[in-house]
Amino acid sequence: MRFASDNTSGAAPEIMAAVVKSNDGYDRSYGADAAMGRVTALVRKVFQAPQAVVHLVATGTAANALSIASHCPPWGAVFCHTHAHIAEDECGAPEFFSGAKLVLVPGDQGKMTPATLADALSRTGEGGVHGVQRGMLSLTNVTEAGTVYSPSEIKALTDLAKARGLPCHLDGARFANALVATGATPAEMTWQAGIDVLSLGGTKNGCLGVEGVVLFNPEKAWELELRRKRAGHLFSKNRFLAAQIEAYLTDGLWLRLAAQANAMGQRLASGLAAQGATVPDAPANMLFPLWSPGTHDRLEAAGAQFYRLFAPEGRERARLVTSWSTTAADVDAFLAALQP
Predict the structure, then answer these.
(1) pTM greater than 0.85
(2) What is the 3-state secondary structure (H, E, C) of 157-210?
(3) How many domains does the chain have?
(4) Which of 15, 230, 304, 307 might form a disulfide with 319, Cβ 3.0–4.6 angstroms?
């Protein structure tokens, strides 16, 4: 009954086997390994983007911060949702690496709308030299509220940014979960929807520890590579990162892992609703239910793990996240413990 985060799960057996295999013998360092070439070919095939470039890092924070730094000048504004991960959970790393300012855009359930983004765009960059200029757009899918943007929703937002000449970033820490939830292809969710750079998540979906920065504009590849080195995120033994992503993207493993996480999320959501909990829209693997006072204590006494969140008076709110390794038995045990 471990639902605190998909980060708390282990690595998938296929990923671990790939890492062990990559330990045999010798290979070139700093990304010149043979596996990295195969990863680039896989990314280009999976995303239907023959010019795409991918650089690997170990953390989502590094992927986001370096993506933003390579696309936004230090006098620029990064438009992101009020509760975006880059705004609330990265200790100022995007600002530190880019020098840019985050401009928070409101929207219900973790999603900005064309109206809220248009308003933010209209109010930024109008003060001449005295204020930050419009810099770039950053979206998150799956959002921090557990909701999901469809490709058409992404396109509506990137169109507004592109009209101002702004590049667009997608924080895809749970990108595979978003694909499974929407049925979209990787291309439809990214460059075909106006995304220029993607933080491709692996760690939350069964990898040991790897994230990719996928650049659909190869002109930024060298700058990203230099920034990665300068920031201390270029791995000498890159082959261990590449081995993970190669296994992850081979034969649809990443989508199968996400499908299991999402299916268990939906099983949990249905069970919670059946027992009277209020479950906001959550089509992927992250839920934010509201339930009666005393439920937190009862669940934790039974061994359940989750995050307690602020809730309206007379209610309790939790964050529950399922992972690739969550089973139906895990979900059913939690639902049994939920009963008074």
Answers:
(1) yes
(2) HHHHHHHCCCCEEEEECCHHHHHHHHCCCHHHHCHHHCCCEEEEECHHHCCCCC
(3) 2
(4) 307
